[in-house]
């Protein structure tokens, strides 16, 4: 079983493994971003999902509620004289805050069952709130919203395959951290027959090649990764850590070996912790 966990500073971890969306939205051709006036950065977040936005999209109510929530956050920081800059890429928010202010009945259930959609919606909403506040200076890039204080902690003994793809929080002591490596998330390939290029998403670092050529009428079947620095190939920082459960007081002397679990950290979560942290 492979788990890809994102660990946040307070010890909560979001497991997000390759979820296929639940949406019935129409497919769009790959590599052709379609943005919408309402959410100019839509395709930054819903790239692999190949989804088209519409006002009755099932995520629309959540994204609207989150956008309003981020307005209040931006205003709050401004009044506290710690203004948020339009270049901010990562923001940490309180789970309790989000729940009480967004008034979405199924938020906790949705976050648990479909974390990729909810986290993407939060990122898009944050980008959108920044755009409405600051205008065109807001760069088109992926922002991460990290959820702090998620109170439903899963004991390591309950970490089973039925939690694959779920958003979970674990608590434990960091016993090992790996070195930081780049992991490739998308590779730009060019066709050896017609030179047409296409981007293939690389899930969990597994190498995936194109199956057909996007070129007009081209039946080329051989593709090579583009080597130029200008290609759309993208890597992110990656690190693996091992977390060990804290044995209850009455079991400390029982000789039982504490359970451990490996988690994978990416991007801004890399290099935040050292062994011994809880
Ligand atoms: Zn071709």
Automatic annotation (TrEMBL):
On whether tRNA processing is a keyword of this UniProt record, the answer is no
Region (Disordered), start-end ranges: 1-30
Q: What molecular functions are annotated in GO for this chain? A: ATP binding; hydrolase activity; single-stranded DNA binding; single-stranded DNA helicase activity
Which GO cellular component terms are attached? Answer: MCM complex; nucleus
Which reaction is recorded as catalysed by this protein?
ATP + H2O = ADP + phosphate + H(+)
> What keywords are annotated for this sequence in UniProt?
ATP-binding, DNA damage, DNA repair, DNA-binding, Helicase, Hydrolase, Nucleotide-binding, Nucleus
What EC number(s) are associated with this protein in UniProt?
A: 3.6.4.12
Biased segments, Polar residues type:
1-23
Instruction: Name all MCM OB domain ranges.
Output: 156-277
**Predominant subcellular localization, coarse grouping:** nucleus
Instruction: Please report the name of this protein according to its UniProt entry.
Output: DNA helicase
The organism encoding this protein is Physocladia obscura
Gene name?
MCM8_1
């Amino acid at each position: 079983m492979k788990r890809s966990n994102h660990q946040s500073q307070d010890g909560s971890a979001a497991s997000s493994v390759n979820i296929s969306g639940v949406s019935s939205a129409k497919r769009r051709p790959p590599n052709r971003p379609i943005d919408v006036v309402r959410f100019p950065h839509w395709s930054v977040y819903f790239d692999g999902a190949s989804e088209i936005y519409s006002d009755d999209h099932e995520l629309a109510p959540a994204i609207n509620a989150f956008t309003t929530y981020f307005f209040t956050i931006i205003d709050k920081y401004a009044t506290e004289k710690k203004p948020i800059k339009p270049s901010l890429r990562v923001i940490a928010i309180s789970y309790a805050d989000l729940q009480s202010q967004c008034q979405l009945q199924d938020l906790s259930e949705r976050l648990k069952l479909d974390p990729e959609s909810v986290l993407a919606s939060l990122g898009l909403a944050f980008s959108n709130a920044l755009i409405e506040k600051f205008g065109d200076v807001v760069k088109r890039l992926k922002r991460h919203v990290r959820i702090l204080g998620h109170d439903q902690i899963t004991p390591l003994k309950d970490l089973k395959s039925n939690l694959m793809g779920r958003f979970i929080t674990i608590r434990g002591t960091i016993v090992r951290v790996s070195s930081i490596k780049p992991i490739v998330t998308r590779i730009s390939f060019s066709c050896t027959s017609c030179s047409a290029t296409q981007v293939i998403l690389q899930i969990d670092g597994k190498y995936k090649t194109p199956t057909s050529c996007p070129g007009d009428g081209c039946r080329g079947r051989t593709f090579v990764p583009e080597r130029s620095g200008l290609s759309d190939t993208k890597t992110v920082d990656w690190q693996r850590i091992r977390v060990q459960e804290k044995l209850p007081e009455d079991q400390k002397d029982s000789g039982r070996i504490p359970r451990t679990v490996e988690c994978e950290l990416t991007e801004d979560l890399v290099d935040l912790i050292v062994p011994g942290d809880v």
